[in-house]
Design a protein that fits this description.
With about 210 residues, the protein is of the alpha+beta class. The protein has one domain: 3-Layer(aba) Sandwich (NADH Oxidase), CATH 3.40.109. The protein contains 6 helices and 7 strands. It has a 7-stranded antiparallel beta sheet, sandwiched between helices. The longest helix has 26 residues, at about 150-175.
């Protein structure tokens, strides 16, 4: 575990070096009293592909990320389940000013790359480019040990789906809109984010306010 923490720290330092003009975004503590009941959120859940261009407030962004894959217990476990609690999922926030890594332990967004890469998320579906933030769910399948690659990818896809569902339920319960998508320019995103071969972009969720 100590070795993994050192490797993670080294990766973060390398990423920050490529985004020197971006600042760390320190997130607020999540507001756990907001939103509708779970049953009402399920009633409201739907996919929306048109978004207001209005940026999310810091509190809304903070609550969204915590609901997505934040820490909800003292032992470091997350709001989203993962197979064997291997915590293979990493979340990247792609916004107008740049791409960020969600560091759940520090409760902050770490700069990765400066520039607007929302078009890489949108691919040919240009309407979702208007979303102020797109959450890219990445599975690092190397965190699954003792499995063949096909099984690693299967488990990673399952975990990514759970995280995406968290995003959708939060959006439906707190007045946002989103859509789960697998279309994206994967190879280009991997280069921008400097992902390794074992870090696989699985799914993305553009998130924002409803277009009036």
């Amino acid at each position: 575990m100590k070795k993994l923490s050192i490797i993670t720290a080294m990766l973060l330092l390398a990423l920050i070096a490529n985004a020197q003009n971006l600042q760390i975004i320190k997130l607020n503590e999540p507001n756990k009293n907001r939103g509708t009941s779970v049953m009402q959120a399920l009633e409201n859940r739907q996919s929306t592909r048109e978004f207001s261009t209005e940026k999310l407030s810091l509190q809304d962004l903070s609550d969204l990320l915590w609901a997505t894959n934040g820490i909800n217990r003292p032992d470091g476990r997350r709001t989203a389940a993962t197979a064997r609690n291997n915590q293979d999922i990493d979340v990247y926030a792609i916004m107008e000013e740049g791409a960020y890594f969600y560091d759940a332990k520090a409760n902050e967004l770490q700069p990765v790359a400066e520039g607007d890469f929302r078009g890489l998320i949108a691919d040919a579906q240009l309407s979702v480019k208007d979303a102020p933030v797109s959450l890219l769910v990445v599975s690092d399948i190397s965190r699954f040990t003792g499995l063949d690659v096909d099984r690693q990818k299967q488990w990673g896809a399952l975990d990514a789906g759970i995280v995406s569902q968290n995003i959708m339920i939060f959006a439906a319960g707190c007045g946002f809109v989103t859509v789960p998508r697998v279309y994206m320019k994967t190879d280009e995103l991997k280069k921008v984010l400097k992902l390794t071969e074992t870090q696989i972009p699985m799914i993305n969720n553009p998130v924002g306010y409803s277009k009036k």
